[in-house]
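Notebook entry, structure prediction.
Reason for the run: the old model in the group folder had no record of what sequence produced it. Starting over properly, with the input documented here first.
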Amino acid sequence: MIFCYKIVSFISLTISKVVLQISCLYNIINIFMDIVAFYKKSFCLSRLPANNHLLTNLLLHD
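New structure, fully documented this time:
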């Protein structure tokens, strides 16, 4: 009985660790994608002519 309990607790602990690592990795990927999107937007805006307001508004409101 105790042996069975140890196996179950070990499995649940392992699953919770894996879930935690996956969610952490997901957050890191999201942050990275936000940074990439921000730099892409900044790069596009810096290359636009100043009088092109329509395109600027389209880029700003994703």
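Summary: The chain is about 85% helix and 0% strand.
The old model has been moved to the deprecated folder.
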